[in-house]
Amino acid sequence: MKTGRVTVSDRASAGIYEDRSGPEIEIVLREVLGADLVFVSEIVPDEMDLIASALKRFADEQECDLIITTGGTGISLRDVTPEATRSVLEKELPGFGEMMRTLSFAKVKTAILSRAIAGIRGRSLVVNLPGKPTAVRECLEILAPAIREGVAHLRGEDPHVIVEK
């Protein structure tokens, strides 16, 4: 499965801050989906046009099955990942964000401030995640079955023959 990961962070894109969430995406996805994943990655600042361009490039040119973003889903003025994502989606999948917020709220009461969304562009499943590595792990573990089945549908495969990990 070809997977794109986009870290959205002004500081990480400027080299001021080490990207820890992007690498965590790879670690967790390999654990929950299997080791045969191929990753392409990019770090962009919190700019709508740069985020949208990265998502389009990964979906349209790189033909990624799955695209995961991390960061920019909060309520700060510079947090624009959901808006950038929504601008490139063909169909939105509200259950992803709803489930992340619901299950994360049990552990972190501020999880309701997350505006993460998900959807599809072409044959790519696009999912926004929070920017903290611990939240990346928690959310991907929650979403893994839906990600697995969603990718199968987009590939035209029978999702009922997918073996659960």
Walkthrough of the structure:
The chain has 165 residues and is of the alpha/beta class. It has a single domain (2-159), classed as MoaB/Mog-like domain (Molybdenum Cofactor Biosythetic Enzyme, Chain A). The protein is built from 6 helices and 6 strands. It has helices at residues 10-13, 21-33, 48-61, 81-88, 94-105, 133-155, and strands spanning 2-8, 38-44, 66-70, 91-92, 118-121, 124-129. The protein has a 6-stranded mixed beta sheet with strand order 2-1-3-6-5-4, sandwiched between helices. A hairpin with a 2-residue loop joins strand 5 (118-121) and strand 6 (124-129). Helix 3 (48-61) crosses helix 4 (81-88) and helix 5 packs antiparallel against helix 6 (133-155). The mean pLDDT is 94.
